[in-house]
Amino acid sequence: MPLSQRFGDLMAAYRISQRSLARVLGLSAPMLSQLINAQRIKIGNPAVYERFVMLEERQDEPDLQRVLDEVQASEPVLTTHSARSRRLEAGPVPGADPAAQVGRLATAEQLRATAEAARAADAAELAALLDRAAAAHG
């Protein structure tokens, strides 16, 4: 099923707007719009995707507002590629640029998506760090 239809089904099931769905997922409203309109073809942030799946799985529960609140507050932890795990185990490099260190943890697309979520949460300094890390990827 296309993402646009899946997002539409969620907005209908939870009776929420596109902006509200973006907030629950941890995406910016423009990024969600791009996904709905097929200007983007995948959700790059694993935590956002996990929240999306949680909403799909729980849409038949009786208290939908509680589901929305719980999913929005969730901090999914997903297992990622083993090479990334090895980079994480290596730890920070003393004296290295924090953006460069963060850049070792994710792809440029994931960093940009996380920066958008940080901006949405009014974490401008974190968003700027993530933007610098994404830019370093090229």
UniProtKB/TrEMBL annotation:
Checking InterPro entries in the record gives: Lambda_DNA-bd_dom_sf
The protein depicted here goes by the name: XRE family transcriptional regulator
